[in-house]
Amino acid sequence: MRIKPCQAQYKVGDMVLFKTSFPAIHLLEMFGHCKFNPRKIKPEEYVGEIMSCQKANGPLPPGYAVSTRYPLNGFFEFLLEPQIIRLATDEDIRRLKLSPIEGAGFLHKDSIMHRQHIVILTGAGISAESGIPTYRGEGGLWQDRNLAALSTAAALEENPATVLEFYNKMRLLVAGAIPNAAHKAIAALEEYHNVTVITQNVDDLHERAGSSHVIHLHGNLTQVTSSHNRLDSSCIEDYPLDVPIKVGDRAVDGSQLRPAVVLFDEYVDMSEATRVAREADVFVVIGTSLSLSGAKALCRCPRTDIPRYVINPDDVSENLPEGFIWLKDVATKGMATFLDEAKGGFRRFNQTQEERL
Description:
This protein is α/β, with parallel strands linked by helices. The protein contains eleven helices and 18 strands. The longest helix has 17 residues, at 160-176. It is elongated, with a radius of gyration of 26 Å. The two termini are 49 Å apart.
């Protein structure tokens, strides 16, 4: 066995270009020293992720390529001489030819985009297809000024029975709703990517679809809190959606129990959402009109060199942030289109970037 050092230093997780005469398109194991997830881009040239790097007496020093004999079925041996050439470039990645059967790579475990941090900002439009009405869109709840007037802290204090009745109806509506294909597609991304959902919605459909990291900007109807100390974590608790909140029900501090949602005249904490948006590798906005200052601010957080998309069937051209691709469709169809875009290497986004340059 020969171990030959490379010029550069590489580590587990790096995408590298390497050469080998062994025609592998499956998981390639090099005598137990290095494991790659290779994809062929031209004869004897592959791009792969370094998945592990270890030998019997400890980790293999980064940047070492291994030459050894690879046993096949215990009877034959092929000379295997994989040599890492360099880190893979964007051009290498674009040259990958992935099988359509494997979903063209974005969701497949062998994807070149494996473990991207995908941040998805959702609004009422994603839950509309599950039967939950929107707020500001056509026919939205806040088109009725009487309903909008109920969603203030002042109204809760002055007329708690009416406010609680409204929210109890909303809670029952959420209890009967079912996550749709868009919610499920977002949750499915977690198998191969790091996904954070930032939602303006007060339902729990993302969680029920399987999303494990959800930031609720406006609170959650599945929880209750204190009317006097709504942000005190000791006052916030889970509460069944089908159990009404009544006047006289008390929080742990003795105040009137209320839904743990943000009312119109209350503060919205954007700190965590802002931090996450800045860390995104891919940023997608679904089902929000982008008319709220919070959503607009979050759309300014991601880096300008990453793929950024807005999915909305309504006209958002006036509020569309610069550099975003607008997919004009409902959430379920828009997510399908987005996944096609991703599988194709975000060609539309890249083309737009090149045109801007």
